[in-house]
Amino acid sequence: MSFKLRSDERGSAAIEMAIATPVLALFLYGIFQIGVMFQAMAGMQHGLGEGARYATIFPTPTNAQIASKIDETVFGVGVGDFDDPTVTDGTGYKDLSVTFSMETNFLFFEGPEINITQTKRAYTYQASTS
Hints:
By secondary structure, this protein is an alpha+beta fold. The chain is rod-shaped, with a radius of gyration of 25 Å. The chain is built from 3 helices and 4 strands; from the N terminus they run H-H-H-E-E-E-E.
């Protein structure tokens, strides 16, 4: 009787599926979370590029105007939060920076908080004083 029970394979596919499905779902949702991060990084680069373009083309933009331009053009799916952009003055340039933070969620458990900071340097026009 025990030999017959060991050789019976009915239902083994259902058990394997029950074990593999949660792991597969976890991996797929993790890939989605990584995709959200990459989209936020693309949105930050776009916003910083627009801010750098604004700082370079216009003769005397204020730091608040540049930060507002970055804030208007940054994009993402709305899962995380973009911090207010920062603009720092240098000699002949401005450093632009924006940070994205997101709580990761992997269906069955909470993941770590992810913070991504992107920066860009915009060289500005310097009027000749001579």
